[in-house]
Amino acid sequence: MAAPKLPCLRTSDVQRYILRRILQMIPIALGISILMFTLLTLAPGDPVDLLISTDPRVRPEDVARLKRIYGLDQPIHIRYVKWLGRTLQGDLGWSRTYKERVTDLMKDRIANSLWLTITAFFLALLVAVPVGIYSALKQYSFWDYLATTFTFFGVSIPVFWFAIMTIYLFAVWHPWTAWPPLAWLALPPGGISTPGVGSGLPFLLDRLKYMLAPSVVLALLSMATYTRYTRSSMLEVIRQDYVRTARAKGLAEGTVINKHALRNALIPLVTIVALSISGLFAGAPVTETVFAWPGVGRLLVDSVLGGDYVVAQAVLMFLAVLVLIFNLVADIGYALLDPRIRYD
Amino acid sequence: MARNAATVAVPAAPQPRSDIGEGYWQIAWKRLRKHRLAMAGLFVIFLLVAVAVSAPWIAPYRFEEIDLLNRFAKPFIAGHALGTDDLGHDVLTRLLYAGRISLLVGFAAALSAVALGTMVGVVAGFYGGMIDNILMRLTDIVLTLPLFGVLLLLGRYFGGGVLPIVIIIGAFGWTVAARLVRGEILRLKSLDYTDAARALGASETRIIFRHLLPNAMAPIIVAATLDVGGAILIEAALSYFGVGIQPPTPSWGNMLQNAQSYLWSSPLLAFWPGAMIFLTVLCFNFFGDGLRDALDPRLKV
Prior knowledge:
The complex is a heterodimer of chains A (344) and B (301).
Chain A: H1 13-41, H2 47-54, H3 60-70, H4 76-88, E1 94-95, E2 100-101, H5 102-137, H6 142-156, H7 159-173, H8 201-237, H9 241-248, H10 253-290, H11 296-305, H12 309-337
Antiparallel strand pairs in A: 1-2
Chain B: H1 3-8, H2 24-34, H3 36-53, H4 55-58, H5 91-127, H6 129-144, H7 147-158, H8 162-172, H9 175-189, H10 192-199, H11 204-212, H12 217-240, H13 252-260, H14 267-295
Helix pairs in contact in B: 2-14, 3-5, 3-14, 5-6, 5-8, 5-9, 5-12, 5-14, 6-9, 7-8, 9-12, 10-11, 12-13, 12-14, 13-14
């Protein structure tokens, strides 16, 4: 649909495209919130029911009174609208199990998760891009087969098992510590820091030690996915005519690969990477739980399994919004990088 | 262009006639046979299925049988090839029975997810317009959901048995297949032979089931194969967190959860179930990848 150009608003195509994508996000976000609110509200055992099950002295009239106080006796659509209103004002409620405001709880947990997610993200990217490129340039070589097999391993391995095996190897068994130069390579089985470690450099080194295993475990899946996409995208690009032209006019091989092939090959990767950042967050629950890392993912697992639905709702909504935002980032990145894309 | 092979040959002929050369499926099978990893994967899958089906006959013990005098037995001690767990269950026996559950859940969940996705994709792609719009926005919503959290939540309410887990995984796993099938249907719908069928007075049902679906079969089969591995991983993760298959019914996931507490003293207890999950999923991914190359070379990555 060609919108009439308004002379006063000089919006470019890209800006209009971004605006439209943001507007499209709103109904999806609302849909997700409705779906999740319904799921959590229809869950057997609302907060008051859970309260009774732990205290036999609570009488039925107390239950009715409590439900009225908390607004649990109202129909679901009213409760949803009230919840939505509060959430949009930044009030996510009060956690029953953590005895804390959910916003405060989330703030700490997000900070902890970021340590892990950002490390894992760069780890994955730094390994995957060179491996993917090399594997494409040397298609069907031994190293290509090795890299391809590795990507299959990465997408097939159950994360919780990999995590447990890592803990066993590096925190329990570590036979190599008998050899003095490797004596330091015994990692903690979980947690985020040694109590009373201080600040500054000792803190950072300590944090690094705790982060090493979980970030590698978390990075593995993304590493495999990125490698696959880099390889296939590179394979596609080096068959293009403009690469042959570059070679034909006598450019050095390094220039052909770096300037002509790689830049174009990385465009689709930007999309995959942006889409998967939210996936790193979403994939963190398992890793964080096994390694006892106090992040958002573990908060999700604990709150769902512990029946703290106020927290669960907040975390689920946070993760969904994150996915939406990174989808948008992926689309915008693609639109900016690839001039061939049409804005519709 | 290998694409020609798929269009020149009679697509999805139920009974390939010898007088018109090789059919699409024969060509695909030939290509698949050359794919070593896929054939290895297929072989191991057959082996796993055979072992799982015959578990009651080949397992050395009953899965609930307890050898209290030999708890935490090391491998090959007291007649337990892989040792025993904390209650004295024979680990090999439980691995075999758990394989039944995991494979059953994997196949059933993948099948229901892909069936549902195909239905949504066909309806959205074929009818288009408002229906398409609603279904695709629904797909967007489900795709945006933090899947693991939602499955954990549903597992907590309804989990425990095989059927609820299959339904839960199927109910949220259809989106990828739906998008894929919709795309295929949109492409096929615009081809001349569909117009020809319509011009000949074929009904909508006939066009969908005789002309569109058989030609969209390749990506559907590939998606289903890869989904089996995915479903097995999800079931294992849910069982690992205690909301999937409940003991005493063994599943690889709940065996691993149980073994985790004894990681210091009996690490092998945790090794076996995870290794089985890994092997199974790896084989489905190898096979699915080879199948994609064989059925439709356009669908790379």
